[in-house]
Amino acid sequence: MTKPKIVAFVEPSFYGVSFARAAFQQGCTVISIVSSVDNPRTYGYEGIYHDLIVADIRDEESVYEAIRSSAYFGKLDALIPATDYASHLTAKVAERLGLRSVPYEAALKSRNKDLAREAYEAFGVPSAKYRKVRTYEEAEAAAREIGYPIVLKPTNCASSQNVYFISGQDELKDAMAIISDFKVTYMDFKVREEYLVEEYLDGQEFSVEIFLENSEPAFAVVTEKITSPLPYFVEVAHTLPTSVHTDKQAEIIETAVSALRAIGITDGPSHVEVKLSERGPRIIEVNGRPGGDNISSDLLVQALGVDFFEATVHYYLAEPVNVHASRSRAAAIAYLLAEKDGTVASVGGLEHLQTGDAIVRSHISVQQGDQISVAKSSDDRLGYVITVADTPQEAKQAALDLISKVELVYQ
Which PROSITE patterns match (predicted)? Predict the structure, then answer.
């Protein structure tokens, strides 16, 4: 009988829970390296792991020493980052253990937007004009040089946290005051006190879900995005594959591949965000992991039958990888957002999300008595519905129509 492979994940959470599930379903022995023994319950993966190792997942040495002092030292077959914030740290620990990993420098660049922009610039990858700043005075000088409107963002955060669209000097001053007080993000990871001032790129936003083998795409598909009205950048809906600008898909994918090569990612999954501007595709950011927001866990599987999480576990185990589409449909997700700030008196229309040929599943987290506000980041979204159909247009319209039937009544 073949002995199960032992796979460790660093802090499974959000999209990373799908990694643990994929490995568990593949018959692997799943070890979760966590900052708290409560995390399986917190992030919803109770019952799909075999053991826990507690460590400070913000510290490379702590993670390494926790593994070294465990019963699994010298026995791990793979060590996989299951949260963005620990990706570079996990890469370094995997290197020390002699395990397959994303190159450390590539992981570091994918986690730090300023380092990525520098790489794009060095390799001629089309992206946004930018300047790295620390103070309001530096930000104001950068904005004058680049020209308003601009975007102000942290260098090492996710989920649109404290990303600002800024039209003028007064807005910039207010935003810098807020962003300068933003010290800690998810799981107590520190926010770097360096920020990016970037040109605002107008145009349709996409992401590319891509799996590389030796720097070439073994699989790639373009996901269409709808984002909230400015001044925020909250993702409201995703459609896979895209229903718009289908004639530009090859160019969008090639731009994404060039960005991955620039930062040094040559193999495995990535989620690359792109704006289609008047000048052509421009890179927003690169993430060296499967797309979150239910894109890889649901839309990709429902539409094309491709499971990036399963494929990634096989990749880290140096096993054959299958990322070939087994079906040709389309899937979409639409999110529920508050139209205004207030207290919820009731939530109506939920019966529309229960049954229907197009509905895969739905989840509404808001309830009576909740204080809600206009969404400024992904954390402020209140629920979603996932749909599947024969065409991207049908899947997208079904999701948008269904979520519009959910009625938030305010007190």
Answer: ATP_GRASP (PS50975)
Q: What CA–CA distance (Å, rounded) separates 118 from 276?
A: 21
- 387 within 8 A of 399, measured Cβ to Cβ: yes
Q: Compute the distance between CA of residue 17 and CA of residue 223 in angstroms, rounded to an integer.
A: 22
Question: Pairing state of beta strands 195-199 and 130-133?
Answer: antiparallel
Sort residue 268 into left (φ over 0), alpha (ψ -120 to 50) or beta: left
Confidence of residue 305 (pLDDT cuts 50, 70, 90): very high
Residue 360 pLDDT > 70: yes
pLDDT score recorded for residue 1: 66
Decide: 60 and 85 in contact? Cβ < 8 Å.
no
CATH number, domain with residue 214: 3.30.470.20
Task: Report the relative pairing of strands 359-364 and 383-389 from DSSP bridges.
Answer: antiparallel
What distance, in Å, lies between the first and last C-alpha atoms of the chain?
A: 62
Could you give the number of structural domains in the chain? 4
On whether both 59 and 33 belong to a single domain, the answer is: yes
Range of the domain at 308: 112-126+203-328
- Looking at the structure, do residues 139 and 119 belong to the same domain, yes or no? no
Domain assignment present for 106? no
Does this model's pTM top 0.90? My answer is yes
The rounded distance, in Å, linking the Cα atoms of 362 and 245 is 28
